[in-house]
Amino acid sequence: MSTPNTDRTYRTQRRQFQAWCADRGVDTTPCTAETFTGYISYLINDRRLAPSTVELAWYAIRTWQPHGHWFDTAAARELWDRWKMEWAASDRGKPKTVPITEEGLRAMLATCQDDWIGLRDGCLITLAWGTAILRSELARCMAGSVRLVDGGVRLQMPCAQTSVLVRDSQDPVTSVVRFTAGWLAHLRRNERHDGFLFPSSDRWGNLGEKGLTAQTLHRIVCERAEAAGLGTSGISFTSLRVGRATGRSTVAFSEPDVERFGRWQPPTFEVLYPAR
Description:
The protein is an alpha+beta fold.
């Protein structure tokens, strides 16, 4: 049994098919293979609808036919298969992720003040930028996974045997040390030593036991981008990762890090021509 939303969508698709058939003087139920193929071709070639939308119309029409009525759909299937491959090979329907550049990053962090929200958001953004971590991974990080070290901040990656060093910029506006130290101090004052790195909170700033969701981290990035005048079109948490990949290097992996994380052994070479 279909859901009410599905029934509503099917009715809409059937009304559109019925109007198309009426304009051409052909029957809707039962319809012929030529009529069905012609309508699928119309949706693809004239309206340029997404393959998923064409498929939805396909099932709405097929399930509308009288019981036992069969017609050949091979030609329509060939049209849809080709359109699906063409659609997948193009940029249609794919959201464009706008990278956050270093200038954009600075503008976002400039909106983060030294109150608890500003410190939290600044810590989140600088760690996300510096580590290129997934938002789902950052949401799982615990407070104990972050350490202030000489020259920056080291983050233990969740479910991994390695950590990433985020070098400090030495700039108060973009300093990962400034934001991380301030946020960790706020967690300690609220006795959140062992909980999530980014716990949930109420409107009064009381920290909860649960961590912020990955979607909330995404929303925070979008809100800071909007506050910085970057807009929200194409901006997402991934924008930090994309921007980080195209920006200058701020992450340092030591050779032992690479060995542990990538199960790699440094190469050894035989000296073929020893010095005399």
